[in-house]
């Protein structure tokens, strides 16, 4: 049985309306459930494997969540990690140096050799 309360909590209180396929699956949603939510526009695909709960333009914070979730495990880095980053800037995320990721529009991935063990001091956002 899908954890709809867990999804509601994640979307409304934690991740500003953004969720990943991996998170949906961990909440016991099936592929069919996800496809149904997409057809009904309860969720809208932003990039492969990452969805938002509306059809409008994304806010800066939602773009940051999309960037982190699309490259998970990752963390905001550089100017993107500041409290008030430039509004139209590319979003910078740190990833482990041994990872291969698909490019995401307006997101720049920075390989960090010590990210995987958490020794960079970067806080990974919860998934």
What features would you highlight for this structure?
three-stranded antiparallel β-sheet, three-stranded mixed β-sheet, disordered C terminus, alpha+beta, 19% strand
**Major beta-sheet overview:** 3 strands, antiparallel
C-alpha termini separation: 20 Å
Helix/strand-derived class? alpha+beta
* Element order: H for helix, E for strand: HEHHEEHEEE
Helix content: 25-40%
Estimated radius of gyration: 15 Å
Explain what this protein looks like in three dimensions.
The structure is a single chain. With 127 residues, this protein is of the alpha+beta class. It is built from 4 helices and 6 strands, in the order H-E-H-H-E-E-H-E-E-E. The chain has helices spanning 4-14, 21-26, 31-39, 60-70, and strands spanning 18-20, 44-47, 50-52, 75-76, 91-96, 107-112. Strand 2 and strand 3 (50-52) form a beta hairpin. Residues 117-127 have low confidence and may be disordered.
In short:
The protein has 127 residues and is α+β, with helices and mostly antiparallel strands.
Strand and helix map with partners:
Layout: H1 4-14, E1 18-20, H2 21-26, H3 31-39, E2 44-47, E3 50-52, H4 60-70, E4 75-76, E5 91-96, E6 107-112
Parallel strand pairs: 5-6
Antiparallel strand pairs: 1-3, 2-3, 4-5
